[in-house]
TrEMBL record:
InterPro entries referenced in this protein's UniProt entry, alphabetically: Hda, Hda_lid, P-loop_NTPase
One Gene Ontology CC term in the entry: plasma membrane
Protein's name in the database: DnaA family protein
GO molecular function, one term: DNA replication origin binding
Domain Hda lid: 170-234
Gene3D superfamilies: 1.10.8.60, P-loop containing nucleotide triphosphate hydrolases (3.40.50.300)
One of the Pfam families matching this protein, by short name: Hda_lid
GO biological process, one term: negative regulation of DNA-templated DNA replication initiation
Amino acid sequence: MPSTPSAPAQPQAQQLLLDILPGTMPSLDGFVAGANLAALEAVRGLAPGRAVYLWGGVGSGRSHLLRARAQGAGCHYLDARSPAQRLHALATDEDQALSLVAVDDVADLNSAAQAALFALFNRWRTAAGTPGAFALLTAGDRAPLAMPLREDLRTRLGWDLVYRLEQLSDEDRAQALRDRARERGLQLSDEVLHWILTRCDRDMDRLTALIDSLDQYSLARHRPITLPLLKDLLADAPALPRTP
C-alpha cells in the first residue's frame, strides 16, 4: 500500500516564505547597529575621496549598508552578479560623474570584475582632492588580506577605512523586531518572538519583512498574532504571490 506523502518540512516553507517576501528599500536609519555603530557612522558620513571596506559574515548587514548608502544621483551599487563590463565602464568612463560606487561580495568577483575593480580604485585615488572625487564603498565576508583575490586588489581594499561587522546579539534582534512591530501597532508575544529568533535566519531585512507579512496575514484572516497564526502563514507560503 503506497505511503501517504508527508507534509513539507516547516523550515522549507519558512525559507520559501522568506525568499518571496517583498523586499523594502534598505535605509541607514533602518539599520540595527548593535556593536556596529562606528561602521554605520563611517558609512553615513562617507565623503568623496574616501573609501570604506566592510567585512562580516552572512546576516551582518553589509549588503544593507551598501544598498542604503548607494542611493541618489551618481550612486551605483554592484555585486558579483553584476556584469563586469558595467564595473569597467564606471572605472574608465571619466565623462561619467560619480558620487559613490558600492561593490558588494568582492570575494566572488571573477577575474574580469577584479580587474575592473582594480581600475576603479586607481580612478578613485587619482580623482581624490579634485572636483571629480567620489566615495568608494566595498564589502566582503573576510578581512582584506584574507580575500581570495589578486594581490594588488587585496591591498587596495585596505587603503582607507576598514570595519568588521559583528553579528547582532539576540537581544538586539529581539528589540529591533519589537520596535518594528510597535511601528505597525502590533505587540509580539514572547512566545512568537522566541520562535522567530530561534527558527528563522539572522538576516534583519528578512525578519523585518516577516513581521510586515505577519501583520498583513493577521488582518486578512481576522485573527490575532499568535504562534499558530505564524505557523499557518509559513504553511501557506507556497500559495503566496511571488513578487516580480
